[in-house]
C-alpha cells in the first residue's frame, strides 16, 4: 500500500491512509526561478498538479503494464493534495521540465515515504538519490520523529542502494500475480471444527486483535509497526476496509475463519479491486496455535473462487521474501513473482 494523507471528510491514498499531513519545516523555493536552472529541487507546495501531468501519466502506465494495477485513482488524490498545498515532498526540475517527484506524510512518531517516481527518460539514479535525500533530510529534522518507513515500487532505477546509504534496514518484498484460470485450487471443505464466513464490518475490532496476535514477533511487524498494537492494527484495517487504502475493498471476496464453537476469528483474508478484473489480497493471517493447519490456504481458495465467480481474471499480493512459508503457499496456489522491491525502515 502506498502512503497518502487523508481528511476527516474522506480518504486520500494507495502503501498508508489515516495519516496526518506532513507539515514539517521544509526549504522554500521560488519555483519560477528554479525552473530556469538545470537540475533543481522544488517544494511540492510551490507547484500546481498540472505541471506534473506528464509524470503522472508515465507512472500510471508502469503500474498498469507491469503490475496490472490502475493507479489513476491514487494519482487523482495526489493531485488534490498538491493543489491544496497540503502534501509534503519535492519535485526535480531539469531546465524547466519536471523529471520526478516524491512525497511523504507524518503519523505520530514516524514519517512515511508515500511515493517516489522518476521518469526513465532522464538521469534516474541521480534524480532518485536527490529526491530521496531531500525528503529524508526534512523528515529527520522533524522534532520527536523516531522512525521512517518506506515501501516504494521501483520502475527503472534501483532504490536499495539509496536506502542503504541512508542507514535503512531493508526487507525484500515480492509482488506476486496469479492468473485465476491457472489457480491450483483443491476446493477442500472446511473441517467440522471450523466455519468460514463472509466479511462483516462489525468484525473489525476482533479482526484487529487477530492481526496483532498473528504478527507478534513476525518480520512484517518490523516493517509496519502498526501490527504491534491493537490500536495500530485497527487503524490499518480501517484504511483498507472502510477507506480505499489499497484499491476498492471487496467484501464479497473477503472471509473470516472462526471455530465452530466460538465467535472470535482465528483467520481472515481481505481482498480489494485494483483494476477492472484484477483483485489484490490486502491481508491474510492466521492466529498462532491455528497456523500450519491449512486455514490460510482454505481462506485464499475461498477468495479465489469468489473472484472467479465475479469474472475476475487475476489476483495479486505482496509478501516478505523471508516469510518462506507464505511464499511457498502462494506458489503452490499458482502465484508467480513479477517484481521485487524493498521495504525499508530507519530507526532513530
Can you describe what's shown?
Strands 2, 3, 4, 5, 6, 7, 8, 9, 10, 11, 12, 13 and 14 form a 13-stranded mixed sheet that branches. This protein has two domains: 2-167, Gcn5-related N-acetyltransferase (GNAT) (Aminopeptidase), CATH 3.40.630; 177-340, Gcn5-related N-acetyltransferase (GNAT) (Aminopeptidase). The chain contains ten helices and 14 strands. A hairpin with a 2-residue loop joins strand 3 and strand 4 (97-107). It has helices at 31-34, 53-67, 72-83, 124-140, 160-165, 204-214, 219-223, 230-241, 295-309, 324-333, and strands at residues 2-3, 40-43, 88-94, 97-107, 110-118, 147-151, 169-179, 194-198, 248-249, 255-259, 267-275, 278-286, 314-320, 336-347. With 348 residues, the protein is of the alpha+beta class.
Topology:
Layout: E1 2-3, H1 31-34, E2 40-43, H2 53-67, H3 72-83, E3 88-94, E4 97-107, E5 110-118, H4 124-140, E6 147-151, H5 160-165, E7 169-179, E8 194-198, H6 204-214, H7 219-223, H8 230-241, E9 248-249, E10 255-259, E11 267-275, E12 278-286, H9 295-309, E13 314-320, H10 324-333, E14 336-347
Parallel strand pairs: 5-6, 12-13
Antiparallel strand pairs: 2-3, 3-4, 4-5, 6-14, 7-13, 7-14, 8-10, 9-11, 10-11, 11-12
Helix pairs in contact: 6-8
Amino acid at each position: 500500500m502506498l502512503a497518502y494523507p487523508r481528511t476527516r471528510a474522506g480518504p486520500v491514498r494507495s502503501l498508508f491512509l489515516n495519516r496526518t499531513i506532513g507539515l514539517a519545516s521544509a526549504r522554500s523555493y521560488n519555483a519560477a526561478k528554479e525552473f530556469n536552472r538545470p537540475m533543481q529541487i522544488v517544494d511540492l507546495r510551490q507547484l500546481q498538479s498540472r505541471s506534473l501531468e506528464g509524470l503522472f501519466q508515465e507512472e500510471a502506465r508502469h503500474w498498469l503494464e507491469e503490475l496490472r494495477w490502475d493507479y489513476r485513482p491514487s494519482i487523482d488524490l495526489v493531485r488534490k493534495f498538491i493543489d491544496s498545498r497540503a502534501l509534503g515532498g519535492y519535485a526535480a526540475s531539469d531546465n524547466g521540465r519536471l523529471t520526478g517527484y516524491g512525497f511523504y506524510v507524518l503519523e505520530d512518531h514516524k514519517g512515511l515515504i508515500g511515493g517516489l517516481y522518476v521518469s526513465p527518460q532522464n538521469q534516474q539514479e541521480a534524480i532518485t538519490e536527490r529526491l530521496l535525500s531531500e525528503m529524508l533530510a526534512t523528515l529527520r529534522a522533524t522534532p520527536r520523529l523516531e522512525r521512517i518507513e518506506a515501501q516504494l515500487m521501483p520502475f527503472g532505477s534501483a532504490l536499495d542502494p539509496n536506502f542503504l546509504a541512508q542507514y535503512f534496514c531493508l526487507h525484500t518484498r515480492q509482488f506476486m500475480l496469479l492468473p485465476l484460470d491457472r489457480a491450483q485450487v483443491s476446493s477442500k471443505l472446511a473441517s467440522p471444527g471450523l466455519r468460514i464466513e463472509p466479511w462483516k464490518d462489525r468484525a473489525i475490532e476482533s479482526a484487529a486483535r487477530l492481526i496483532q496476535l498473528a504478527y507478534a514477533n513476525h518480520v512484517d511487524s518490523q516493517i509496519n509497526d502498526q501490527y504491534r498494537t491493537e490500536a495500530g492494527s485497527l487503524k490499518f484495517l480501517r484504511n483498507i476496509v472502510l477507506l480505499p487504502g489499497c484499491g476498492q475493498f471487496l467484501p464479497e471476496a473477503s472471509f473470516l475463519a472462526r471455530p465452530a464453537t466460538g465467535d472470535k476469528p482465528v483467520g481472515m483474508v481481505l481482498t480489494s479491486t485494483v483494476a477492472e478484473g484484477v483483485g489484490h489480497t490486502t491481508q491474510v493471517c492466521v492466529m498462532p496455535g491455528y497456523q500450519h493447519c491449512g486455514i490460510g490456504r482454505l481462506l485464499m481458495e475461498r477468495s479465489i473462487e469468489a473472484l472467479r465467480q465475479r469474472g475476475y481474471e487475476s489476483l495479486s499480493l505482496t509478501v516478505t521474501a523471508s516469510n518462506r512459508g507464505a511464499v511457498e503457499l502462494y506458489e503452490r496456489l499458482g502465484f508467480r513473482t513479477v517484481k521485487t522491491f524493498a521495504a525499508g525502515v530507519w530507526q532513530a
